[in-house]
Amino acid sequence: MMEKNLIYQEILKHVKEGVYFVDTDRKITFWNNHAEKITGFTAAEVLEKHCFDNILNHVDDEGTHLCRQGCPLHRTMEDSFNREASVYLHHKQGHRVPVMVRTYPLYDEDQLIGAIELFSDEKPPMQLIKEIEDLKVLAMTDQLTGLANRRYTESFLSGKLVELEEFKTPFGVALVDIDHFKAVNDTYGHDVGDLAIQMTVRSLVGAVRSSDLVGRWGGEEFLVVFSAVDLEQLRRITERMRMLVEASSVQREGSDIRVTVSIGVVFVEGPSSKDHIIQMADQLMYKSKLEGRNRISLATLG
């Protein structure tokens, strides 16, 4: 049995949970690699010490010190029942770490020789929910600009089509492209190109209403979706977008770097499809470019 234990211990050294063994006096006889990672205590620091010797010192949600009363490992050795509990262990650096612990009796033939505890990182529910929400936001956000990414922008546009169908609420879509952006990159480098994009984004966001969405469409293109807007409002807001970008600049190495934008704008007041609206906005944006850039071209759909 002891030879088998050595084999098991070699395997358990590398599992992705903290694992330790104690003898019947609760002296630690085995401490695996992941236990070191979770607790900060090395095997050399804990082996041959008792688990209650200011090492893990588990506490529960109520602050009860489980090593003094109700320790799952101790109780498992008393009645040989497996146990599972959420506790907070003491990290070597002093803070508390939430873990899920599972305890099992350890036998040699029919003789109880100690117990095993397995423990793994366990995040509090609210922290886990927050991290999930953060990941959702990250999945919907463009890294460079902080804007909604293309996928989310398309989803937002789809929502406006549903509102139009159900409530007859018109909306607007604008495709915005930075003029001569390749020349900015070629002249000043991609770092300055990124700054020009960020400057443009701030101007666009500053021009629209809180109910509107500015999304990164790709490269130096942006798709803006305007909620519940009339034709004249749409014209004013998109002209303000154009003007604010033109009036912006970024200073780099003594140069005053400015850009302009060409904008294609669609006022949607009748049934259509997402693809058709975007295609129409794209055609209008190229019309603005052909007519001299730094301007808007607007049409009504429906």
What does this structure look like?
By secondary structure, the chain is an alpha+beta fold. It has 2 domains: 2-122, PAS domain (Beta-Lactamase, 2-Layer Sandwich), CATH 3.30.450.20; 135-301, Alpha-Beta Plaits (2-Layer Sandwich). Helix content is 40%, strand content 27%. It contains 10 helices and 12 strands. It has helices at residues 2-12, 33-39, 43-46, 72-79, 125-139, 150-167, 181-188, 190-207, 231-246, 274-290, and strands at 18-23, 28-31, 83-90, 96-108, 111-121, 171-178, 213-218, 221-226, 250-252, 255-257, 261-268, 296-301. The strands form 3 sheets. Strands 2-1-5-4-3 form a 5-stranded antiparallel sheet, sandwiched between helices. Strands 7-8-6-11-12 form a 5-stranded mixed sheet, with helices on both faces. Strand 7 (213-218) and strand 8 (221-226) form a beta hairpin. Helix 7 packs across helix 8 (190-207) and helix 8 (190-207) packs antiparallel against helix 9. It is elongated and about 90 Å long. The model has no long low-confidence stretch (mean pLDDT 88).
Number of strands: 12
Number of domains: 2
Identify the CATH architecture of the largest domain.
Answer: 2-Layer Sandwich
**Residue fraction in strands:** 25-35%
Distance between the termini: 81 Å
Helix content: 40-55%
Rg of Cα set: 31 Å
Short description:
The protein is of the alpha+beta class and 302 residues long. Helices cover 40% and strands 27% of the residues.
List its salient traits:
40% helix, alpha+beta, 10 helices, Alpha-Beta Plaits, elongated, Beta-Lactamase
Break the fold down into its secondary structure elements and pairings.
Layout (H helix, E strand, L loop, with lengths): L1 H11 L5 E6 L4 E4 L1 H7 L3 H4 L25 H8 L3 E8 L5 E13 L2 E11 L3 H15 L10 H18 L3 E8 L2 H8 L1 H18 L5 E6 L2 E6 L4 H16 L3 E3 L2 E3 L3 E8 L5 H17 L5 E6 L1
Parallel strand pairs: 11-12
Antiparallel strand pairs: 1-2, 1-5, 3-4, 4-5, 6-8, 6-11, 7-8, 9-10
Helix pairs in contact: 7-8, 8-9
